[in-house]
Amino acid sequence: MTDADNSQVNFPGILIAGIGNYYRADDGVGPRVADAVADITGIKNIGPISEPLDLIGKFDNAKLAILVDAMRSSSPPGTIKIFDMNVAEVRTQTTSTHGINLERTISLAAALGKAPEKAIVVGIEGKLFGDGDKLSPEVADAVVDAVKMIDQIVLSELE
Fold it and tell me: Would 65 disulfide with which of 59, 81, 142, 159, CB 3.0-4.6 Å?
């Protein structure tokens, strides 16, 4: 049995995707966290994903899609935030294919009848977004915590 097959036995319908670019400093945190979670748990990794719209066709009708992405807000670098993208509420929002974000991607997937039942976004506040394959120290330190948080999310879904 391959690892991908094993993930469907242990975690049927649960997918993870890291959104970002390994070569844009902290923007690569999403794919790195998703890779770590998949390596540890065997959950099917459908990333890396460069643009949210690329999720269409990959996360179709999943029970749970865990999406990990770098974020920019006023929080300190390395801050981790969990967003439950309540798909039922997202479905009522306007969709657009221009400048599409995660919320609109899920809304578009819902309109196509392909949205996951539940989508959780794990956002990690970035600091550096220029060229380079190294994470800032604050973001690198957050990787282990993000993996642990995702492990708890998966365990709670299995209960």
Answer: 59
Q: What is the pLDDT of residues 26-85, one digit of tens each?
A: 999 999 999 999 999 999 999 999 999 999 999 998 999 999 999 998 899 999 999 888
- Sign of the C-alpha dihedral computed for residues 123, 124, 127 and 132 taken in this order: negative
Q: Which domains does the chain have, with CATH numbers?
A: 12-158 (3.40.50.1450)
